[in-house]
Prior knowledge:
Immunoglobulin-like
Amino acid sequence: MKxxxxxxxxxxxxxxxxxxxxxxxxxxxxxxxxxxxxxxxxGTGTGIQVVVPFASSLPCGSxxxxxxxxxxxxxxxPNIINGRVLADKNSSSFQSYVNTCAQNNVASFxxxxxxxxxxxxxxxxxxxxxxxxxxxSASYQPGALARTTYYRRMSTHIEGSLGHRAxxxxxxxxTISVQGKSPVPVAxxxxxxxxxxxxxxxxxxxxxxxxxxxTNTSYNWxxxxxxxxxxxxxxxxxxxxxxxxxxxxxxxxxxxxxxxxYYISTSGxxxxxxxxxxxxxxxxxxxxxxxTPSGITFQKNYNxxxxxxxxxxxxxxxxxxxxxxASVDGGYEADGQIIASGGYVTFPLNVYGGYNATTTITxxxxxxxxxxxxxxxxxxxxNPQCGYSYAVVYPNPSSAGVKLNNGGLGxxxxxxxxxxxxxxxxxxxxxxxxxxxxxxxxxxxxxxxxITSDGKVRFNKxxxxxx
Length: 467
């Protein structure tokens, strides 16, 4: 009769008896597997083989050799994780177990009387575990690590004479912590203006997609300048770094800071208790004017209808600018609205199309207004599918008279001189093809003609009169 198990109570069926009996076998600490003599109430019996897996059957218990956690450098390979119960190749108890396997013609790992099978698993949070492909040996050698990782071993064994495989035990968890890595800032250089009486604020952040977010448990921020703060904390007055688990902080710069270059440092604190090397962010303080606006263009807005089109202007955001202004020939003016999420500035000019419009945009900051940028673009006046043509004024230049064609719509044509004074107003009748206008009474010069219909501007161009 052979008796197997992982505790000191065994259930056995006797040879030579028709009834079953329970045997309790007490094994002293440290006894190895082998043939033992057992005494029961019927006398002394021999030939009873007791297999003792370990002195302690608990995973990672006192009888195992290696169970400790590890700390490794970022990108380094940890030491091998030795096995647990019935699996530590360097353990004398395990060697005795292997000998028992050999006596039963079983040569593979943990495939003796219990027919143990194992599967190593890993996790990054100790909640979600995944099998490691091919990791079915007594021990496991992890590869190079870039983040703290947890490992454990699941064991199953044969249960019953039919060979059913059942869960046996789960090892304790081994934690391999990765030393903190120097953070990677989202941006390593910033430029701010010190003009005016208002201080500046900057949002600084480390890259959340970089591997350092897995190795650092918190971040140190050091701003060594009086009056500067990080999230309202002065590292100068308080004599130490600002420590936070957040990856974004707000740096406040006081007004009147001298022109120059300033340096802010951040480092990571690893799960092993170490501090990483510093990453440096450069802040350049200037009193520069904003640059020239670029990317100037017109965009149709939705203030008109399907047959009359109106336009707003846009430009790219100018670094260092805090306000913008746009003007368009024809008397249109608007301040800019910064759309930070889109990286542009929009100007609600509501310009009616039908001419080559020139817009001029300036950018300003507390130091003043920078050089202007301009762009000319022809703006379509109306949708050709609306059933009438564009308003037309010809000839241009004119010597004696001009013809006004409003596409069959009624309206009003107004002539302005170069000073913006109204010099002539002509009523246009509905369904009238063309209207002749005598301009001999107007002195030579450049005039502006605007034709409106139902409150919409359909023509807005210059006319040159040369007698």
